[in-house]
């Protein structure tokens, strides 16, 4: 599940065999094909938790999807991370109100990756010689923050990067007994101001997507 529907198209065309487009609703493309002989779908999720929540909910509850792997981009919160680094999100803090609403504001629910998927992704990355950093991230409602000080504070607590979907994905998967994982490529570094080029993004996406697909079919 990439956020960008055109990335879904690129993944289907580049990595899947006999991929067929099953949905163009809202231009949020979805494709099903096979990867190493195993049926796999790739579905855009859009940007942000409200959009991604709809696709995750329906994939699980209406199409019996049991494994959801997000392949996205993120902004690094620490200067230690370089552009194009690949991250596996073990857990996802959020500033979204969705889970506060879910738990009446009484519980700070901790959305986490499925451990089996995370372990498999780490193994697959190691086998491919792809360096992958595992750790917690932030799923933010807003792309443009007016509180960079809070991002610095999160970094003090080990939070690696910010994106906009993972907390909802992990929560919905947990709720409906599916497995979920978020893999990310660092496209920006919020501390250094570096940004990767379109060409660089594409090259690193390939590594991240291969790890995701190898993990999905185990
Ligand atoms: O590259 P994708 O998967 O869209 O992910 C990141 O990019 C978008 C913001 O530019 C947000 O969706 C964020 O989570
Ligand atoms: O800075 C960034 C880069 C990608 N995605 C985000 O949400 N933030």
Automatic annotation (TrEMBL):
Pfam families: PNP_UDP_1
Family affiliation: Belongs to the PNP/UDP phosphorylase family.
GO BP terms: purine nucleoside catabolic process
Record GO terms (molecular function): purine-nucleoside phosphorylase activity; uridine phosphorylase activity
Species lineage: Bacteria, Bacillati, Actinomycetota, Actinomycetes, Micromonosporales
Residue span, Nucleoside phosphorylase domain: 2-211
Gene: deoD
The UniProt record lists the keyword Glycosyltransferase: yes
A GO CC annotation given for this chain: cytosol
The organism's place on the tree of life at top rank: Bacteria
EC id: 2.4.2.3
Protein name in UniProt: Uridine phosphorylase
Native source species: Virgisporangium aurantiacum
PANTHER family from the UniProt entry: FI09636P-RELATED, URIDINE PHOSPHORYLASE
